[in-house]
Amino acid sequence: xxxxxxxxxxxxxxxxxxxxxxxxxxxxxxxxxxxxxxxxxxxxxxxxxxxxxxxxxxxxxxxxxxxxxxxxxxxxxxxxxxxxxxxxxxxxxxxxxxxxxxxxxxxxxxxxxxxxxxxxxxxxxxxxxxxxxxxxxxxxxxxxxxxxxxxxxxxxxxxxxxxxxxxxxxxxxxxxxxxxxxxxxxxxxxxxxxxxxxxxxxxxxxxxxxxxxxxxxxxxxxxxxxxxxxxxxxxxxxxxxxxxxxxxxxxxxxxxxxxxxxxxxxxxxxxxxxxxxxxxxxxxxxxxxxxxxxxxxxxxxxxxxxxxxxxxxxxxxxxxxxxxxxxxxxxxxxxxxxxxxxxxxxxxxxxxxxxxxxxxxxxxxxxxxxxxxxxxxxxxxxxxxxxxxxxxxxxxxxxxxxxxxxxxxxxxxxxxxxxxxxxxxxxxx
Length: 429
Fold this sequence. Notes:
Helix content is about 30%, strand content about 20%. By secondary structure, the protein is α+β, with helices and mostly antiparallel strands.
């Protein structure tokens, strides 16, 4: 009997593992809307083969004593559990699948830490399309991130439909925005928090998904759609906080940066690094005349941050995850430091997946994806995450919040504010 290959937890995985909370599971939710139907046996076969094509997904947390110095992933030859499910169709089937994605993380002790549900006859509310099939992928974020699992799903689409699902060439970026301005807020000042709304009665996360027009970008401007989304997010939070009488404070918005290739060589795991984009209160007054200048400053800041070499979670995280003490000791220290650092945690997170690079074409009967949503965990103290992707010329926005901070009505109001401020970024300078 061969001994399974073991891989020490990378920095991001270990920090996440130290800070798990049952009340707010660290899950990534991905849903792909298809116009047609899928054959269950054929989908199960294609997705299982895709897991074998990307074997780094086939892993579980290896057991070990409390005094071990490392958590380790144990690679498996086959899945431990049935990964693909077909819940009974019905009016509430998609809503219930979304709820499971937010409340039930695939266990780390079973390979693979992902779950795929095919919900038939769903998906009309947000896109206005005829009933088809929604593929809802739930990912344990301690092990994997959204872009990696989307790569696996693209491989499954190719195996299922027999059509090329190679990634498209990345979009052409506008000209460089110049050096970053020197008037950015100090990174040492505690940033603004999202002001409380009407919290829900139960623990966990709430979710709202919507489809918006992709923002137009005036010709020749030095900023990208990502910069427009970043500025709209900052303006939205500042507007929300003003409405609730919060004292103006600098905002910092965490932005994942992913430099991995999107083809079949893409490294699978948690591969993004996190940077924080700062905004001063006087930049976010809501005056439409100030938006072009805000966009130029945002573009300069995001470019400078992307170009800056930095470990995924910073140098401090690398020290915390060095095996200088048993994992149980380092876990307690990490949790204590996270609580102490809560006032300096960024205001919110914007994860812009960008244009979905794969056709996600499942063949003639199932068809090609016409909408793709992602959502990222929204634990306190941030309590709100904004995730965007674009498919077929439309923007797919997901707002996810901690129920300790916001309620469903708050999510709807934030959606409306975001749509309004995104439109203001379309004006020519």
